[in-house]
Every structure is written in C-alpha cells, then in structure tokens.
Design brief:
The protein is an alpha+beta fold. It contains three helices and seven strands; from the N terminus they run E-H-E-E-E-E-E-E-H-H. Helix content is 28%, strand content 37%.
C-alpha cells in the first residue's frame, strides 16, 4: 500500500539515462522534493552514502541514504535511513533504442514510526504526503525525459 511508482519512455539509450539517474548531486534538478544532495567519497556505486536536504515550501529536512542496488544500465536504488524507504530507478531498453524508466518508492520494511508522526505533524498528513510523492515521482521522470530528449 505504501509503494508508489511511475514509468516513462525516453528516446535515449539506457547508458544515457543511467548516467543521469546515478548522478545524485544533480537530483535536485529533477526531483521537486530534493533541494540539495551531497555524495560522500568518489563515484556513486554500491554502498555509496549521500545526504539530501529535502524541502516542502519553506520546510527543510535532512535525510541520509545508502546505495543498496547498483546494476549498471538496469537498476539503481538507495535506502533512506530515517524512514526505511527505498527509492529505486529501473531501466529497460525498448525495441526502438530508447529506455523505459520506472521510479519507485518501496517500503519493504514499512515506514519508520517516527517518520509517520513527523509527516502527520509537519507535512500535512499521510494522504497529502503520499499524493505529493506520487506527483513528485511523475515530475522527476518528466524532467529527466526532457533533459535527455532536449
């Protein structure tokens, strides 16, 4: 029930799409919730840690993440420490040389209780927040598509 996803087809090969979705420092260009990202260490790979500053209007909050799946040109996912959610991008080549890109918010271990409380108190409640996340996923995918199809 807590998982969210959307898919878009992009007229660009998986290698180009992969380069964008794994460029964590640029995620604020596409995601309406991410204000800034900071990667710890060198290139993003399995186990890489990074920090985001997210926002909703004037409200800002930090999150920390760890890359938990990293299959080049296929699957990129990271777990948010604070709420236990996993954000994933799946890439699938299309017959015409493009890429089907799916973004998902997964909740394999549920959502941390403190996160549920904070969403209720500071972000308008679960229904609004979930709706905002679903809209944000679609916006993120459309912005990535626009960047690549320019």
């Amino acid at each position: 029930m807590s998982d969210l996803s959307a898919t878009v087809t992009i007229a660009a090969p998986p290698a180009q799409v992969w380069a964008l979705v794994t460029d964590v420092k640029r995620m604020s260009e596409w995601s309406p919730q991410v204000w800034r990202s900071f990667v710890v260490g060198g290139p993003v790979r399995l186990g890489t840690r990074f920090f985001n500053i997210n926002h909703d209007g004037w409200k800002h909050w930090p999150t920390s993440a760890k890359v938990v799946r990293f299959e080049p040109h296929s699957e990129f996912a990271f777990r948010i420490s604070e709420n236990r959610t996993v954000w994933a991008f799946s890439l699938r080549p299309t017959d015409d040389g493009g890429t089907e890109l799916t973004e998902r918010r997964e909740t394999p271990d549920g959502i941390a209780p403190i996160s549920n409380v904070l969403v209720g108190v500071a972000l308008g409640g679960q229904e609004k927040f979930r709706s905002d996340l679903a809209s944000g996923i679609r916006q993120t995918l459309e912005r990535i598509k626009a960047e690549l199809e320019g």
